[in-house]
Design goal:
Number of strands: 3
Number of domains: 1
CATH topology: 434 Repressor (Amino-terminal Domain)
Order of helices and strands: HHHHHEEE
Helix content: 40-55%
CATH superfamily: lambda repressor-like DNA-binding domains
CATH class: Mainly Alpha
């Protein structure tokens, strides 16, 4: 899972950079809109860190999308259905929250994900 997790961190960073570029936003503008520091955003965009769910929620909200949509766009990249062992899994380093995208990429406004949150952990979203 380590290589896949690194790939997802890199994909998330690329996706965030792409979403920001599509909107013509500077790093400073995204930082202001998301309340995430420019330094952290830069580190995330470079794929040097695996951001927490709380950070990703703030970034996704700045783009007007859900956490799930942001991660799905990063991990699917227009690809097809993968076997379970090949599906990318995103892990929140702060809580152990695991997220796996189960449904294939499509134009339908539907996505099926599997989430596991370890006992005793919580993730709060604004």
């Amino acid at each position: 899972m380590n290589d896949i997790a690194n790939d997802i961190s890199s994909s998330l960073g690329s996706r965030i950079r792409s979403e920001r570029a599509l909107r013509g936003w500077s790093l400073a503008e995204l930082a202001e809109r998301s309340d995430v520091s420019k330094a952290m955003l830069s580190t995330i965009e470079q794929g040097k860190t695996s951001p927490t769910a709380a950070l990703l929620v703030r970034i996704a909200a700045a783009f007007g999308m859900t956490l799930s949509t942001l991660i799905a766009r990063a991990e699917l990249k227009g690809g097809g259905l993968l076997r379970e062992g090949e599906q990318p899994v995103w892990r929140d380093p702060a809580t152990g929250y695991l997220r796996r995208h189960l449904s294939p990429a499509s134009d339908m406004p539907l996505e099926l994900i599997k989430v596991r949150l370890p006992a005793g952990q919580s993730v709060s979203f604004p």
